[in-house]
Design a protein that fits this description.
Chain A: This is Carbohydrate ABC transporter permease. Chain A is mostly helical and 307 residues long. Chain A contains 13 helices and no strands. Classes of the chains: A mainly alpha (307), B mainly alpha (316). At the A-B interface, helix 1, helix 3, helix 4, helix 5 and helix 6 of A face helix 2, helix 4, helix 5, helix 6 and helix 7 of B.
Chain lengths: 307, 316
C-alpha cells in the first residue's frame, strides 16, 4: 500500500541513519512477514478458544463409545444424529420441545418486559428534570454493584407467601419493573447522546412527554433497543439460578433446568445424549450470535456490557 | 421560552400560578410517572428485600416457623462454621487468581488485535463468543466432560508426559479448572479494552518511538496510564462478577461443592444453606456479609484508584 514512499532500506532502527522515524516506511516484505505472523498467532489462539465449543459439537454427533474414550479427535467416521434423537425425547416424560417452548416464553417475556420498562425509566432519567432525579439515579447505579444474592431470600419468601412459586411470575416481574439496572443505565447513556434540540422542537410543536418518548426517542434508540433485546434474551435463556429457585414441576422447566435433570438422572451413562442436549440448549444463543455478532460485539464495546 | 401550547392554554385558563412553576410541577409529575416501573421494582424487589434480609439475618427463620430474634448469633456461628470458612477460601482463591489472569488475557489479546488488519471483526467475534455461553449449564457440562478422567484435557496432557488423571475428581485441580473456565471468557473485557485502546492517539506512540522508546516503555508510559480508566472499570466489574459465580460451580460439583469442598463457592453454600437446609436467617447473614465485603472492595478500589487511574482531564 505504501510502496511509493518506501525507501530501499527496511525500517530504520538507528536514528543515526534516519533521523525521523516513520512507521509507514517499512518495506512490503517486512509487512507481509509481520502480517503472516499475526494471523498465525491469532488463528492458533482462536483455535484454542473455540476448541471447547467445537469439541462439544463434534461429541454430540459421536457414538457414546467414542466420547471421552481413547478417540478425542474432532472428526469421527461414525457421525450420526442418534444422540439428538435421544435428546429430543426429553426426560421424565416431558419432551425437549416443551423445555424449548418454556425457555422461549421466558426469554421473549424478558425481552418485552425489559425493553418496555427500561426505556420508559431511562427516559425519565435522561430527559425529564424533576426533583430527586439525581438521588434515584445514584441509587440505580449502586444496584449495578449490588450482589443480587442479598435479595433472593426475601424475594423467595414473598413469592412463596403469595403462592407464586412454581409460576413464571417471579422470573418475569423484575423484567417488567426495570430491575436490570444495567439496561436502564445503557439506555440513559444512549439517550443522553441524542441532541436536546429534538425535544425542544417537539415541545414547541406541542408534543408532551408521551409523544416525545414514543415518536422521537424510541425510533432513534434502535441500536440500544437491539442490544438490550439480544442480551436480555440470551441472559434469560441461559439463566439457571432463577428457575432453580422458583420452578419445581418439570413441565415448566426451561432448558438449563431440564439439562440439570438430565445430568442427575443419566450421569455418565448416556454422555452423547447429554452433550447433544447441551448443544440444543445453546443453539438459539449460537444462532443469535452468528446473526447479530456485529451488534453484540459493538454493543459491548460502546456500552460496556457484560457477557 | 419553549412552553408547549397545551401548557400555555392551561396556564391561561388558570392564570394564578406562574408559568415556570406550572411547568416544573408538570415535569415532576411526568418524571415520576415515567420512573414508575423502575421505582416500583426498586422498592419492591431491591430496597424492601434488602431491609427484610437484614432483619432475617438476625433471626433463625426457616420458612415454616415465625422468625425468632437471635441477635448476632448467625454472624458469630458463621466464623466457626468450617464449610463457610472453606467457601470463603474457595471464592477468594477464585477471585484473586481468576480475575487478574482473565484481565491479563483480555488485555494481551486486545493489544494483539489493536492494529488495522484483515479479519479483525472475525477475531473479535471469535474471542468474544465464550463470554456469551461460558456461564451456561451447557458449558459447565462440557467443561466437566473435557476435564474429566480420560477427557481431552487429560489426554492432551499425557501426550506431553503429564499424568494428572481427571481434574474433576481431584480437589487439588478443581480450582485450576474453574479458573480456566473464567479466563476462557476473557472476550467481554477484551472488547472493552479494544474500545479503550482505540481512544489512545497514535501520535503519542510515534513521538515515543522517535525518542527511542521500546515496546515495554511504550506500554508502561503510554498504554497503561491512558488505558487506566478502562482497566479500572474492567477490574471492578470482573471482581464483583467473580464473587457471584454459581451455575458452573453448581453443575460441575453436582450441587454439592465437592470434591472435598474444593468447589464450594460462596454463593453455592449460601444457596445450600438457604434453599436445601431452609436456614434462611443464616443464609441472609451470609448474603449481608457478601454485600459488606463487595462494598469494602469497591471502596478500596475507588480510594486506591486515585493513585493510578488517570482521567483525560487530570493535571499531570
Amino acid at each position: 500500500m505504501t510502496t511509493m514512499a518506501t525507501p530501499t532500506q527496511p525500517a530504520p532502527t538507528k536514528p543515526s541513519t534516519a533521523p525521523v522515524y516513520n512507521p509507514k516506511s517499512e518495506s512490503t516484505t517486512v509487512k507481509r512477514i509481520k502480517s503472516t505472523i499475526f494471523h498465525v498467532v491469532a488463528l492458533a489462539l482462536v483455535a484454542m478458544v473455540l476448541y471447547p465449543a467445537l469439541w462439544m459439537i463434534s461429541a454430540s454427533f459421536k457414538p457414546n463409545s467414542e466420547i471421552g474414550g481413547a478417540n478425542n479427535a474432532l472428526w469421527s467416521a461414525n457421525f450420526s444424529f442418534d444422540n439428538f434423537v435421544t435428546a429430543m425425547e426429553g426426560i421424565g416424560g416431558v419432551s425437549t420441545l416443551t423445555f424449548f417452548t418454556n425457555s422461549l416464553i421466558l426469554a421473549v417475556g424478558a425481552v418485552v418486559g425489559t425493553v418496555l420498562s427500561a426505556s420508559i425509566s431511562a427516559y425519565a432519567f435522561a430527559r425529564i428534570n424533576f426533583p430527586g432525579r439525581g438521588l434515584f439515579f445514584g441509587m440505580m447505579i449502586a444496584t449495578l454493584l449490588l450482589p443480587f444474592h442479598v435479595v433472593i431470600i426475601p424475594q423467595y419468601i414473598v413469592f412463596q407467601q403469595l403462592g407464586l412459586v412454581d409460576t413464571y411470575v417471579p422470573l418475569l416481574i423484575g423484567k417488567f419493573l426495570a430491575a436490570d439496572a444495567f439496561f436502564v443505565f445503557l439506555m440513559v447513556q444512549f439517550m443522553r447522546g441524542l441532541p436536546a434540540e429534538l425535544d425542544e422542537a417537539a415541545r414547541i410543536d406541542g408534543a408532551g412527554h408521551v409523544r416525545i418518548f414514543g415518536s422521537i426517542m424510541l425510533p432513534l434508540m434502535k441500536p440500544a433497543l437491539i442490544s438490550t433485546s439480544i442480551f436480555s434474551f440470551i441472559w434469560s435463556w441461559n439463566d439457571f439460578l432463577g428457575p432453580l429457585l422458583y420452578l419445581n414441576t418439570p413441565e415448566k422447566y426451561p432448558l438449563p433446568l431440564a439439562l440439570r435433570l438430565f445430568v442427575d438422572q443419566t450421569q455418565s451413562s448416556d454422555y452423547g445424549a447429554m452433550i447433544a442436549m447441551s448443544v440444543l440448549a445453546l443453539l438459539p444463543v449460537l444462532v443469535f450470535f452468528l446473526v447479530f455478532q456485529r451488534y453484540i460485539v459493538e454493543g459491548v464495546s460502546t456500552q460496556g456490557l457484560k457477557g | 421560552m419553549t412552553q408547549s401550547p397545551t401548557l400555555s392554554r392551561r396556564a391561561a385558563s388558570a392564570p394564578t400560578p406562574p408559568r415556570k412553576s406550572r411547568r416544573r410541577g408538570a415535569n415532576t409529575r411526568a418524571g415520576y410517572t415515567f420512573l414508575l416501573p423502575w421505582l416500583l421494582g426498586f422498592i419492591a424487589l431491591t430496597v424492601g428485600p434488602m431491609i427484610s434480609s437484614l432483619y432475617l439475618s438476625f433471626t433463625n427463620y426457616n420458612l415454616f416457623d415465625a422468625p425468632k430474634w437471635i441477635g448476632f448469633d448467625n454472624y458469630l456461628t458463621l466464623f466457626q462454621d468450617e464449610r463457610f470458612l472453606q467457601s470463603v477460601g474457595v471464592t477468594m482463591q477464585y477471585v484473586v487468581f481468576g480475575t487478574p489472569l482473565k484481565l491479563a488475557a483480555a488485555l494481551a489479546i486486545a493489544m494483539l488485535l489493536n492494529s488495522k488488519r484483515k479479519g479483525q471483526g472475525f477475531y473479535r467475534s471469535a474471542f468474544y463468543a465464550p463470554s456469551l455461553i461460558g456461564a451456561s449449564v451447557s458449558i459447565a457440562i462440557v467443561w466437566k466432560a473435557m476435564f474429566g478422567d480420560s477427557g481431552p484435557v487429560d489426554q492432551g496432557l499425557s501426550f506431553f508426559g503429564i499424568n494428572l488423571g481427571g481434574w474433576v475428581g481431584n480437589p487439588n485441580m478443581t480450582m485450576g479448572m474453574m479458573i480456566l473456565l473464567t479466563v476462557w471468557q476473557f472476550g467481554a473485557p477484551m472488547v472493552i479494552f479494544l474500545a479503550g485502546l482505540k481512544q489512545i492517539p497514535t501520535d503519542l506512540y510515534e513521538a515515543a518511538s522517535m525518542d527511542g522508546a521500546g515496546p515495554v516503555r511504550k506500554f508502561m508510559n503510554i498504554t497503561w496510564p491512558m488505558l487506566s480508566p478502562v482497566i479500572f472499570f474492567n477490574l471492578l466489574m470482573e471482581t464483583i462478577h467473580a464473587f457471584q459465580i454459581f451455575a458452573s460451580a453448581y453443575i460441575i460439583s453436582n450441587g454439592e461443592g465437592g470434591p472435598a469442598g474444593s468447589t464450594l463457592f460462596y454463593t453455592l453454600y449460601l444457596y445450600l444453606r438457604g434453599f436445601s437446609d431452609f436456614r434462611m436467617g443464616y443464609a441472609s447473614a451470609m448474603a449481608w456479609l457478601l454485600v459488606i465485603v463487595v462494598g469494602i472492595i469497591t471502596l478500596i478500589f475507588f480510594k486506591t484508584s486515585k493513585s493510578w487511574v488517570h482521567y483525560s482531564g487530570d493535571a499531570k
